[in-house]
Amino acid sequence: MALPPDACGLIVKYVSDSRPTLVSLCTVSKQFRAAAEKLLYNTMHLTTYDFTITICRLLSCTPRLACHVAALSVYNHGDGDNEASTSEEDGPQPPDWDTYWNALSAALKNTMRLRFLSFYFAGGGQTDKAWILDGCTFQLRTFHCDLAWDIHLQTFLGTQSRLSDLYLADFQSLAIAPPISTSAFLPKLNVLECTFSEAAAALVPDRPVCRLKTCFTHSRLEEKRTELQIIAASLRQSKRRLRALDIADSSYTPEFSLEMLAAITSDPALGSELRYLGALVLPVGGQQRLEFYGFLMRLPQLRCIEVDVSDWDPPPTHTPALRALTHELRLYCPSVTSVIYVYDFERHFVRIEGHLATYDEDALADGLWHEI
Description:
372 residues
């Protein structure tokens, strides 16, 4: 006698943390198999060469399973991968990357309900493989893309009318259809992370982008000023007010940080709803630091700020110093509830709990710009 569907679902949910148990449930009955397969194939992490090919072949020839995949992460090490495929007759064999990419392409065409897709390439990898997205019909919500930008990637992104969260490792504007300058290209984009500020300048206007993480591509002061003006102009054209802004810089200086703060706080479209801001140099000198705090007073919604203190000597990286600096900053910007201090690329996170500043050495602060 079949169990009620609700009871079957509750049983499967109860053991959802145990993949071996879910696999065992697939052998109990068709009813349990259907419920267990939804959880088993909902989220897939393809890491090794052999495992990726095995799973991709399964998904490409079994649409019933492929339709359960909602989140897929692909980790590729490219030609530098020392992993070898195995053969019972001939022993270890070098990876056949054509087979690997063709299998992945076939699997992606079957995952029609895919919503979260990530490509991670360690050490560069084979990034020129965006053709595997040709013919895909799924509508993504989140896309982490280490693939090189080319005609295939631009064409694919042109079909993503529901994509809201995008990471790009590469960017170039190609004069092909669909043009990226139109608002019909990624119309729902809210969160953009890109290593080239040119991507922000092209993809922010006329879209509801409210969170941006990028970096300056120039090191000369005059070129960075021009770049900042372009980024600010693009953000003003967004359909939503800015909530998070994180711009990395190869050469942090207090003077340019003050210029950046001045540009942000002078425009309500940029500063009125800003909740996260980084990375800025916290000046050592008293007068410059007061000017820095003066700009922060114009950001009424600021919740978290990331400041670089690499120029400080001695470094303020011990708990009493971090707490003292946090309380000093909150005298001028009391809305701040967390501060990230960066010293020689090492991050120190301080949060406000009640009226106390607490140093949390185990906190994962990298994603705060995305959440706060």
